[in-house]
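Deliverable D5.2: sample structural annotation.
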Amino acid sequence: MREKIDKIVKDGDWEFAKLLKLNEVCVDLSKTMYQELSPSEILELIWEIQIDEGGRTLGQIISMECRNVLKGEFMVSFQKYFETATVSFKSPVQEPKADLSIKPEQPPLPKAKKDKPKDTVKGSDGTDMPKGVKRL
């Protein structure tokens, strides 16, 4: 904001006779500039100005009032739903609590080894013997 004002003052083509009535010039400039400000710029400009004897600023008062309005709106909404609510005096069934404790991670179980089919030879007595083994 300060930069905008400085630019207007610096770049303006001022007549000395007008500047002798500096208060009127500043009033006119402030009216013109106010028309160009966005709502957020207006709030930023006056947010920290002390406005009561307690030292509260506009920002503090607006914050307090907004919270009061919002609280009232929440109360109205709850009241609306309370008017149609029904009450039951049954005790709720307690569900068993799940064990949410952290347990140390277990290593994975080893996989079962698959037996490879072995090359076998049927002996004269009908039993299978691995290849290369001689019967005595």
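Annotation notes: The two ends are 110 Å apart (CA to CA). The first strand starts at residue 120 and ends at 122.
The annotation will be released with the project's public dataset once the embargo ends.
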